[in-house]
Each structure stands twice: as structure tokens, then as C-alpha cells.
Specification:
- The chain is an alpha+beta fold.
- It has one domain: Protein Transport Mog1p, Chain A (3-Layer(aba) Sandwich).
- Helix content is 21%, strand content 29%.
- It is built from five helices and nine strands.
- Strands 2-3-4-8-7-6-5 form a seven-stranded antiparallel sheet, with helices on both faces.
- The protein starts with a strand and ends in a 25-residue tail after the last helix.
Length: 214
């Protein structure tokens, strides 16, 4: 069950309840958590929120690329893009999500895609163009944090047009297309908003939106 009552699933086929795939290898899934959201800060504290989310993903061995506060069907939400190293072969999984938190629950829309075949081409091309000195950069949300996966400019959106079939580009494009089509249940929208500041934990809690698989 999910408070998301509608979204544009053009090109996707249902694999199992709440999970869809397309011919490009994208996996879209919907989730509902009947628990107080474990976000590290309210959405109206974006700097603290982004730093906490960066710590969450780093502690789980993943890398946060973007965290942006926005809206889903007029309800405040946070969009995240992250990458996780594949465990069985070279390459990475790229994951994008919208988390829509309310006072005592939340819903998540997640889209992910994994590298296949030759991996690292996008990174190699961008590294050659910008040079090593400008390629790796401190993380913009937590420059003092030690990261399991490096933050670099090849993950930035400006390169998506040149690599349209890269999984990160496809995840961004799918989120951009689907987000305006999402409709939330009126009862969910009427719930009290999420807004109580939570302490910043040093490790992610039980609901990891960036898990591989579902």
C-alpha cells in the first residue's frame, strides 16, 4: 500500500506489486513507511538536511550526489541521487528518489539503474576533458567527510546530454518526466507535516531508500 495513487508509468511493465521495469534497465518502486521519518533534519533546514543525508549514505558505503528540497503534488519532499558500488562486478548502481515525509509516516518513489558492459567510460571522458586537478572535489554538503565513493564532476547533470544512455542520465531523465505526474492520496496530504528536528545519527537507520534491488 502506498499513498501514491497515480503516476505516469509509460514504458514500464509491472514486475511485482509496487515494482516496475523498462527495456532500458530502469527499476521503479514505490514504498510506504508507517513510522516517523528518519530524515536528519526538517526540510526547512536544507543545509543541515543535506549534510546529514551525506553522512547517512557514506556510513552505508554509498555516495550522495544530490539532495534537493522540492514538492510532490504540492507536498514538501526531498529528492536524492546516490551511487552504490556493485558487489559482483565492476561498476555502480545509480539511484534517485523522492521522499515525501509527514509527521508519522512517509512515502518514497525510487528509480535505479546499474551500469552494464564497459563501466567508467563517462568518468574517463570527463576526467580527460577537465583534467585531474578539477575532476575530484570536496563534497559540497560535507567537505570534511571521508567518503567511501569519491565526489567528482562526472556525476553532475551538465554531462547527461553527452551520455544519454548512462544509467545516471536515465535515472535523472525518468525522475524529471515522472515527478510532475505523481498524485498523492488526499488523506496523506492532509496529515501534519514533518518538521521536528532530529539529532544527526552517525549511521543510517533501518529505511535505506538507496538499497539495491527494491
Amino acid at each position: 500500500m502506498t499513498p501514491i495513487t497515480h503516476l505516469d508509468l509509460t514504458g514500464f511493465s509491472e514486475r511485482e506489486p509496487g515494482v516496475w521495469t523498462d527495456e532500458q534497465g530502469l527499476v521503479l518502486s514505490l514504498h510506504y513507511f508507517d513510522l516517523v521519518p528518519d530524515l536528519p533534519a526538517p526540510l526547512d533546514q536544507p543545509e543541515r538536511l543535506r549534510r546529514g543525508l551525506t553522512r547517512f549514505t557514506a556510513a552505508a558505503g554509498a555516495g550522495l550526489m544530490e539532495a534537493v528540497v522540492g514538492e510532490i503534488d504540492t507536498v514538501p519532499a526531498v529528492r536524492q541521487l546516490a551511487k552504490v558500488a556493485l558487489t559482483n562486478r565492476p561498476g555502480q548502481v545509480f539511484l534517485g528518489s523522492w521522499t515525501v515525509p509527514r509527521d508519522r509516516c512517509s512515502t518514497v518513489l525510487k528509480i535505479q539503474a546499474a551500469e552494464s558492459g564497459m563501466s567508467g567510460l563517462r568518468e574517463a571522458v570527463v576526467l580527460d576533458r577537465v583534467g585531474p586537478g578539477d575532476y575530484f572535489q570536496p563534497h559540497p554538503y560535507a567537505p570534511d567527510l571521508e567518503l567511501p565513493l569519491p565526489y567528482h564532476v562526472a556525476d553532475q547533470e551538465e554531462w547527461d546530454e553527452q551520455f544519454p544512455t548512462h544509467p545516471l542520465s536515465m535515472v535523472r531523465a525518468a525522475l524529471r518526466r515522472i515527478t510532475p505526474t505523481v498524485v498523492l492520496d488526499d488523506g496523506f496530504k492532509a496529515l501534519p507535516p514533518f518538521g521536528v528536528a532530529q539529532p544527526e545519527p552517525v549511521a543510517p537507520t533501518r529505511r535505506r531508500w538507496f538499497r539495491r534491488g527494491r
